[in-house]
Specification:
The complex is a heterotrimer.
Chain A: E1 5-8, H1 9-19, E2 24-27, H2 34-43, E3 50-53, H3 57-69, E4 74-78, H4 80-96, E5 100-106, H5 122-126, E6 137-139, H6 144-161, E7 164-170, H7 171-175, E8 177-180, E9 207-208, H8 215-235, E10 239-242, E11 249-252, H9 255-270, E12 275-280, E13 282-284, H10 288-292, E14 300-305, H11 311-318, E15 325-329, H12 338-352
Helix pairs in contact in A: 1-2, 1-6, 3-4, 9-12
Chain B: H1 29-43, E1 49-53, E2 68-71, H2 77-87, E3 92-98, H3 99-105, H4 107-115, E4 121-126, H5 156-159, H6 165-169, E5 175-182, H7 186-204, E6 209-215, H8 219-222, H9 226-240, E7 244-248, H10 257-264, H11 269-272
Parallel strand pairs in B: 1-2, 1-3, 3-4, 4-6, 5-6
Antiparallel strand pairs in B: 5-7
Chain C: E1 8-16, H1 21-34, E2 38-43, E3 53-61, E4 75-78, H2 81-87, E5 96-100, E6 114-118, H3 120-127, H4 133-145, H5 150-160, H6 169-181
Parallel strand pairs in C: 1-4, 4-5, 5-6
Antiparallel strand pairs in C: 1-3, 2-3
Helix pairs in contact in C: 1-4, 1-5, 3-4, 4-6
The chains are: A alpha/beta, B alpha/beta, C alpha/beta.
Chain lengths: 354, 276, 182
Amino acid sequence: MGEKVLMKGNEAVAASAVRAGCRYYFGYPITPQTEVAAYMSKIMPKIGGTFLQAESEIAAINMLYGAGAAGARAMTSSSSPGISLKGEGISYMAGADLPGVILNVERGGPGLGSIQPSQQDYWQATRAMGHGDSRHIVYAPNTVQEMADLVYLAFDKADEYLMPVVLLADGLLGQMMEPVELPPEKTEFPEKPWATTGHHNKRPHNVANSLYLQADKLEAKLRERYARYEQIEKTEQRSEAFMVDDADIVVVAFGASARIARSAVVSARAQGIKAGLLRPITLWPFPNDSLEATVPQAKAYLSVEMNMGQMVDDVRLAVHDAHPVRFYGRTGGVIPAPGEVLDAIAKLAQEVGA
Amino acid sequence: MADKEPRIVFQRPKSLLPVQMHYCPGCPHGIVHRLIGEAIDKMGIEGTTVGVAPVGCAVMAYDYFACDMIEAAHGRAPAVATAVKRVHPENIVFSYQGDGDLASIGMAETVHAATRGENITVIFYNNAIYGMTGGQMAPTSLPHQVTQTSPYGRDVHTAGYPIRVCELLKDLDGVAYLERVTVDTPSHVRKAKRAIQKAFTYQQEKRGYTLIEIVGTCSTNWGMTPLESMDWMRENMLPYYPLGVYKDIVAEGYENIHEAAKDRAKNVPIVMQEAN
Amino acid sequence: MPKDYSKDLKIIFAGFGGQGLLFAGKIVAQAGLLDGKEVSWLPSYGPEMRGGTCNCSVTVSTDPVGSPLVVEPDVVVAMNQPSVYKFIDAVVPGGLMIVDSTLVPDIPERDDIAIVKVPSTQLADEAGFKQLANVILTGKLYAETKFCSKDAIDAALTKIIPARKAKLLEPNQKALAMGMDL
């Protein structure tokens, strides 16, 4: 067991990425994630890695594409407006089957929005970070410890499935300090015979490419890739259940809002309402299986988010609208108070007679 | 003489794959590919070279070169090449880009890779038009040049002026070598080949960023025969985009970009400070 | 019955940027961590930091921390006038407000909370601990709440002052002790 140290979420993510073997970081300053770049700029020169402050988010993500193609463990980080710019490169990475890790420390939107924490990029992260049919694993940490643990895992999953992996955090998780125990330094990494490292006259040339001018070839490629996505949907769902077994009201919340929802669930129980919290840790694949398992017991669902209602769609799909699915959220950078969530739980309990 | 072994005087460079290219008849892209291939063969670097293809007419270049290849998003080849070079500093990394890719959508990536002094080589094919999409105005289209999107001729009052890339980049401290060449005659082809090889050599010697601009034609989209297009290029493009060496820090007496940059700013105390 | 702060304590440190409020919050969070508690520390961030008000939320608890954003503080430590106005009504009944009375001329009345006035900036200047008013107030906070063991808060300083700034340790220790003894 290592020692627990107090770290900001943004620093923990950077420190853990380095321990996962990340030696290339490409970024561009934007609040509230700049500590990631600051940490990387400090440590990379000391360990023979590369920190590169790119000229733009677009350049940064295309550097991630290049480093991924070249076989390196690399990451980039940004916040919402910058992530929109990265959409191009993420789509190309998906199309060329290249690994890489992308951190979004969300802030309010749309446009320049606010710099306060939000979860308004759920749809972007889970549906379409770029154009074309594509998927990427999306992890949603809710503590500084999970920021460290999930970025560590993200590098392995990116290499395993040859795809970009996204960590969807928010300003609250990025800026707050909590005790964290960093994972051990990784020493073993998968072979990457497909990488464009120079063929050294030992094999035919490798090509990293997303262009298929013949429609049927592109379709075949996509079907092959979607078979892999299907496998991921089967095996990579992650979630945490808290007081869900006997719950009438199942609150569904991820990331920072899950922390608040948890407090509200505890208060609801104290008032005699049988509430529970199902917290998705993977947003894609969405934890459909664990949500579906609650259907026989539950009477209603409440999706709590820091946006105008995005994940609530996935909750409805997961429970096949078997029970009422409601939404409570604050947006624009406003963090809901546990009391507001408790009121929403109580109101729903009354509505369904729980 | 009959007993003498036949001698091969001309063949496909080994580092070009035996595939049919998709370029239009009379297009000089094939010549430029060949020159890159000859340079790679002569230097024996195929195994350690990684090329980055653009979006544009050369989009399929990844199928033509025998070295490892990456297809980049439109304009982003310098960013991709930057990362590849950082991961494998001993490799030779080149990008191959057209005028729209390099000087329009990718101008930020171009300028910043150059000013960072990325030890990469950019092969820039300038034919003053978007070829792949069917002949639209490019950042290097000449004033009054008729294209699909400048049907009355490029109007400098609304569309502004063309960008002279070598002239634009030469003041950046990260740049080691810039030369503008063309491939319309055997002697120009030989000159272009020497320039490409010199750029690769400078990269090998870690001197800094290198770019070779090839002024070329697009007979298809210019609406001319290949020969007419060569004439049009000589009459209009070469005076606007003069051939020649725009920067060569070695010829200026420097080892690399850092030495040259320091000399240029020798009166600036912070520049002369020892690195921490 | 007064609240047992060793089980749960929610604090807001507030003042101007540069007064060391984030550092004061770190002392408390680190002390809680050393005692094996759940802790969180959350700064305000963004344009308001640039020369404007600055605050941080700190929670030290035996239970997992829900929202790290403290909206109903048990204690507010305030080092400027705007912070006093902004946060005095937020303090929960029975709670505490600790104010640097050197810098805050006007403290509104509230009879359901304790208001502790400490002329910490003046005390720091007199004792030669320039810019350690924040640590004096942290000492006072400890004395009023006893949210952790004495060993933990003493050790916290050693943990968070980096080795390259070791010469700052002793004045910080003295300032902390001074606050505890007020």
